[in-house]
Amino acid sequence: MEQIGADKCFGGQQLRYRHSSSTLSCEMNFSLFLPPQADQRAVPLLYWLSGLTCTDENFVTKAGAQRYAAEYGIAIVTPDTSPRGEQVPDDPEGAWDFGLGAGFYLNATREPWREHYRMYDYIVEELPALLHNRFPLDDERVAISGHSMGGHGALTIALKNPRRFKSVSAFSPICAPMQCPWGEKALGNYLGDKRSVWQDHDSTVLISQADTQLPIRIDQGDADDFLQSQLKTELLQKASDEAGYPIEIHMQPGYDHSYFFIASFIGEHLRFHARHL
Predict the structure, then answer these.
(1) Residue ranges in the chain modelled with pLDDT below 50
(2) Diameter of the chain by CA atoms?
(3) Is the CB of residue 208 less than 8 Å from the CB of residue 239?
(4) Which residues of 36-72 are buried (b: 16+ CB within 10 A; e: fewer)?
(5) Gap between the Cα atoms of 133 and 208, Å rounded
(6) Tell me: the pLDDT tens digits for 97-135?
(7) Cα dihedral sign for 122, 86, 62, 96?
(8) How many domains, in total, are found in the chain?
(9) Alpha-carbon distance 226 to 174, whole Å?
(10) 275: burial class by Cβ within 10 Å (0-12, 13-18, 19+)?
(11) CA dist., res. 142 & res. 43, Å (int)
C-alpha cells in the first residue's frame, strides 16, 4: 500500500491509501480515520459505503464524522464505490447510475463486468485483510453503514454476514433494488435477467430469510426526491414487520438526499454504533 494522504483531525489521523487490488484487478483508493485512542490500543472499526457517483473522499470531507469518531474511539474506513481505471468498463451510454462509481457492492457474473466488478468480495474479504494486518483495529468489533447505494450495500452485506458485524445503519438506502429503476438496471446488467438470482442482493428478501438479528438503524428524509421512485423505505418496513425483525426507521421531516442530511444525523449514527461496539 502507498500512503497518498495524511492529515491530523480531532486528535486522530485522516489517512488515504492506494493499493493494487487482486480482487478487482485494478488500483484502488480508500480513506481511513484513526481516532486518537488508536495510539494506545486496537479500536473498533466502522465501514462506510458511499452512494452513486461518489469516491472514497465524499464522506470524509462532507459528513463531519471524524469529530464523533474521535469522541467514541471508532475508526472509519471509506472504500471507493467501484473499480477504477481505463481498463474498467463503464456504462456504455455514460450514465451516472451504472458502471464507474456504481459498483452496487456485489460480484458481477456477466461480461464485460465480472473481471473487475467484484465489490462484495473486496469489502468482505480483501479490504479487511489489508486493514487488520496493518492498523491497530479490533476485528471482533466491526460495524457497517452507508448512504443510498451504499446503504443498500451495508444492509445486504450485514444481513449476509451477521456474525461479522455488531451493528448496521444506513442513510436513505435503496431498500428494494429488485423494484426500482436503479436496482433493476444494475442487477440486470451485472447479474443477468434471472430475477431469482437478484434476491441475494435485496434487503427486503434477505431480512425475511434472516436467522440472526442485528441492531439496525435507518434514517430517511421525507423530502428526498428519490424516496418513492428509488428507495422504497416502506417496503423494508413491511418486510421487517412480517419477519418480526426489529429495525429503527427514523423518518426525518424536511430532509433530502444530500450530505447536509447525513451531516445532521451522523453523530446519532456513531452513537448508535458505539453502544454496540
Answers:
(1) none
(2) 51
(3) yes
(4) bbbeeebbbbbbbbbbbebbbebbbeebebbebbbbb
(5) 35
(6) 999 999 999 999 999 999 999 999 999 999 999 999 999
(7) negative
(8) 1
(9) 9
(10) exposed
(11) 9
- Helices and strands counted in the chain (H then E): 10, 9
For residue 257, indicate whether it is catalytic: yes
CATH of the domain at 136: 3.40.50.1820
Structural domain range at position 76: 2-276
Extract the runs of DSSP E, i.e. beta strands, from the chain.
Answer: 2-9, 12-21, 26-34, 43-49, 75-79, 137-147, 168-171, 216-221, 248-252
Which one of the listed residues 21, 50, 148, 169 is annotated catalytic?
A: 148
Dig out the grid coordinates for 3 from the structure.
500512503
Q: What is the pTM of this model?
A: 0.97
d(CA 221, CA 219): 7
For residue 259, the surrounding DSSP H or E stretch is helix 259-276
Show the cell assigned to 151.
446503504
Catalytic residue among 147, 257, 269, 273: 257
* Cα–Cα distance for residue pair 277/272, rounded to 1 Å: 9
* Cβ pair 16, 118 in contact under 8 A: no
pLDDT digits (tens, 9 = 90+) for 205-245: 999 999 999 999 999 999 999 999 999 999 999 999 999 99
Instruction: Specify the 3-state DSSP secondary structure of 9.
Output: strand
State the CB neighbour count (10 A cutoff) for residue 74.
24
User: From the candidates 224, 240, 269, 273, which is the catalytic residue?
Assistant: 224
164 near 140, Cβ under 8 Å? no
Q: What is the pLDDT of residue 182?
A: 98
Pair 204, 253: CB distance under 8 Å: no
Backbone φ, ψ for residue 239 (5° rounding): -65, -40
Q: What torsion do the CA atoms of 170, 176, 181, 187 make, to the nearest 10 degrees? A: 100
